[in-house]
Automatic annotation (TrEMBL):
Pfam family membership, one: OpuAC
GO cellular component, one term: ATP-binding cassette (ABC) transporter complex
CDD domains hit by this protein: PBP2_OpuAC_like
The keyword Cell membrane appears for this protein: yes
Gene Ontology MF: a single term: amine transmembrane transporter activity
Gene Ontology BP, a term: choline transport
Principal place of residence: membrane
Signal peptide annotation: 1-18
Name the UniProt record assigns to this protein: Glycine betaine/proline transport system substrate-binding protein
Amino acid sequence: MKKFTLSAFAVFSVGVGAACGGEAETTSGDSETNGGEEVSGTIEFGVAPWTSTVPPTEVAAVVLEDMGYETEQTEADVGAVYTGLSRGDLDVFMDAWFPMHNSYMDEYSDTIEETALSYTDASQGWTVPTYVEEIDSLEDIHGNEDLFNGEMYGIEEGAEVTEISRDLIDGEGFDMEQVVSSEGGMLSEVTRHIANEEPIVFYGWRPHSMFNNFDLKVLEDQAEYFEIADVKVVSNKDFAEEKPEAYEFLSNWYMPLEDVEAMIVEIENEDRDPREVAEEWVDENEGIVNEWLGQ
């Protein structure tokens, strides 16, 4: 991976490390010295259990480690990520979806701030395979709940979209229940149903490899429940003062939705290591990285 000359920043000198899991672990390497100044610092990433969180987190970690920071990743449900940000246990979250996460920002407005806009036009909502020809909108589900055995498949408890789907079921008066598990559990059901060309309705969103793997359609008439999302970077309000160079870099962050989705496909479908995919993206997008770094 190329090294970047960080003329806009005083650069930090620390070991390089990254980990993910229920508790963060740190692997340290040799420290770096740049511009004659040595400063240590660790960037704590919150990581939600969604595939869309992985590429931006890994790319940001690659650049931050090249600047000289150490990084750690802590996996948790999204509610716990926001709690960690509010307490200062975590520094930054690269996959905040708005307006769905407005409730978290309202609750933690004194301690968390929006740092950058990553990408726009992230579509989401109840989704079906295209072979379910009779269902194109929420309206079409009325009276056809039995087509789906009265079940809609969602992701984990604690996700804002899980509550939105419950509100949708109640608001539309559907005779259905939401089956809640995880992204992986939901996708297993999607894969099983589609293999047998059985009807299924589930929560879908972009960027995600599901739209590359299957022929899907997001149902019409969902604007009352699911809005087109803006995906942002959010951080603890002390982050800018404590790690100003890292904050400056992340405040310039953006990443095309198509690039996020392409990396997800490489990681999920081609079984590539997320860090290798991120390093490759950084090498191939030096112009964007230089913009982030103010060069």
